Structure formats: structure tokens, C-alpha cells
Amino acid sequence: ARPFTIRFGAQGSSLDREKGLGSQSTRIEIAWDHLFSERGRFDRARLEELADRVASTRRAGIEPIVLLTYCHDWAQTLTDRQATWFHPFFGPPDHIADWKDFIRPVIERLKGQVQWYEIWNEPDGHYLANHTDPGSNTIFGKPAAEADPEFHDNTRYWLQDRYVPLVMATREIAD
């Protein structure tokens, strides 16, 4: 048999397969760089493609869960100096206002079509910001960068100081 993987909500996922398997919900990722190539350059056509996907999902009887995720490199110049990120887009934005500029058009466009939003992908993932002391190896075998000791602990810096405000800002826009 030919091996296959069903990646629910991922690009290339098949609504027919999801429906055939009895899926009741699926996750649709909308990353910051999907809609903004650079600060102030919003791709309305891409948002319309994503809105069409949400509508198709709903027509198939599957509830969409929209994942609002990742940062854009131009929105995190300060956080890049405060912690080492496994991937540049994993670090949070410097300013909540930039996050709101990303999510506002999405939430406004999908109003009444989406009931559930997920903020970030695996926000508690140990790889987002390293837990290791500067100079020692991370789980990926890379040396941890020098970082302000106040910020190199993922739990405090990312979840408490940065993630919770993203969730609160999203709730504010959604309301």
C-alpha cells in the first residue's frame, strides 16, 4: 500500500478525506507572512483565498479552527536580542499593536464564519525559546546564544510576558 498522511488543516489537506473520516473540526493556519510580505503590505487576495477555504470547510460540515500564528521578522527586532529562537518566526512581536494589525483584518473578514481561534502553534513548545544557559548546547545541538538572563527562560518570558498579551489582544479584537 502506498503510505499517506492526512494533515488535518494543513496545506494540501483534503476536505473529502476529512469528511470521510468523520472529522468534525479542522485547523486552518493563517501565519503572519501569509498576509504581510512586509510592514504595511497586506495581501487581501490571500485573505480572500483563506476565507474561501473557511467557507468550503463549513459547507463540508466541518468546523474550522483558525490558527493565528508566528511573527514576521520585521516585527521582532527587539525579541531577537532577548532570546534565541529555533526559527526566526517563533519569537513574539515586539509590539502588541503590530500583532493587532495582523489579526484585525482576519477576524473582521471571518466574522460570523469562525467560532474558534487558536493563538500560536504549540505556545508551550520547548523549542520556541531555549531553556539552556548561554553557551551550552540546546536540544538541537546548537550553542545557546548570550541572552539577558531575565528573558532566556521560555516559561516566564514567552508564556507569561509575551503569549498572554497576544491572547488578550486577540480577544479584544474578536469582541
SSE diagram, text form:
Layout: H1 15-20, E1 25-31, H2 32-35, E2 36-38, E3 41-42, H3 44-59, E4 63-69, H4 79-82, H5 96-109, E5 116-119, H6 154-174
Parallel strand pairs: 1-4, 4-5
Antiparallel strand pairs: 2-3
Helix pairs in contact: 5-6
Keywords:
disordered N terminus, two-stranded antiparallel ribbon, globular, 175 residues, alpha/beta, single chain, 6 helices, 13% strand, three-stranded parallel beta sheet
Question: How does this structure look, described?
Answer:
- The chain is α/β, with parallel strands linked by helices.
- The chain is built from six helices and five strands.
- A three-stranded parallel beta sheet has the order 1-4-5. A two-stranded antiparallel sheet has the order 2-3.
- A hairpin with a 2-residue loop joins strand 2 and strand 3.
* Largest sheet data: 3 strands, parallel
| Helical stretch tally | 6
Query: How large is the radius of gyration?
Result: 18 Å
Classify the helix fraction into a percent range: 25-40%
Mean residue pLDDT: 75
Shape: globular
Number-wise, the strands total 5
Unreliable runs, pLDDT <50, ≥5 residues?
1-10, 144-152
> Order of SSEs, N→C?
HEHEEHEHHEH
